Amino acid sequence: MIRRRFLGLAAAATSSALLARLSSLRAYAAPQPDLRFRALHRGSQVGEHRVTFRQHGDRLIVGTQVNITIKILFFTAFRFKHRAEEIWQSKRLVSVKSTTDDNGTMLQVSGYAAKDGFRMLGNDGPFLASAQLLTSNSLWNSAIVREGRLIDIQHGYEVGLVVKRLGDEQVDTPEGQVRTSRYQLITPHYAGSVFYDSNGRWVKGLIEEKGEIVEYALAA
């Protein structure tokens, strides 16, 4: 995701059974209900983030769409648009295509699984990433909190990931308040936290960009 700083993005895996299940999934998860977040800045909606899931045979197709524009005093302070499609099979990323408008900087990435790893082509040229990695868009998969490397599908290369558990918090959702676990995530291109409920569902995010904070609020 993105040349911006995530202040909040956390995951809740509160039972050992859930942790074991997520660990076995690692870089692949079964279809789940689509996710839609409202992006809020100072209480006003400034965009949204959607994640969709489709099963096609033994493949899971994950679509991500992000559209956020922050305006201050009638000027556009920040604009981020991102669209990606990832295909997963047997715990491995099979292919990816993405386009990104990062505040006017246009990025394109494509990639496919190969015998020697995951081959990518981005604005900086070709890159060979490790085969069994989650992507920078994989916040929907709470197994990300146990990873140390990611495939960055905005920029087209492999990056490091540092994760720290920050504790448990109550979060408002369309179904009411839920108890979540919060983790701080840091990569070269974003830093922050995600919140996951006891089922491993991503339910909240906080984002900082240019000193401004954007909240990801789960929508019905």
Mean pLDDT: 86
- Estimate the helix proportion, in percent: under 10%
How would you spell out the order of helices and strands?
Answer: EHEEEEEEEEEEEEEEE
For the sheet with most strands, the description reads:
14 strands, antiparallel
Strand content: over 45%
Strand segment tally: 16
Shape annotation: globular
Structural class: mainly beta
What does this structure look like?
This protein is mainly β and 220 residues long. It has one domain (5-218). 5% of the residues lie in helices and 63% in strands. Strands 1, 2, 3, 4, 5, 6, 7, 8, 9, 12, 13, 14, 15 and 16 form a 14-stranded antiparallel β-sheet that branches. Strand 3 and strand 4 form a beta hairpin. The model is unreliable at 1-29 (pLDDT under 50).
Reconstruct the topology from this structure.
Elements: E1 5-9, H1 16-25, E2 35-41, E3 44-56, E4 59-72, E5 75-89, E6 92-102, E7 105-114, E8 117-122, E9 125-129, E10 149-152, E11 157-160, E12 162-173, E13 176-186, E14 191-196, E15 202-209, E16 212-218
Antiparallel strand pairs: 1-15, 2-3, 2-16, 3-4, 4-5, 5-6, 6-7, 7-8, 8-9, 10-11, 12-13, 13-14, 14-15, 15-16
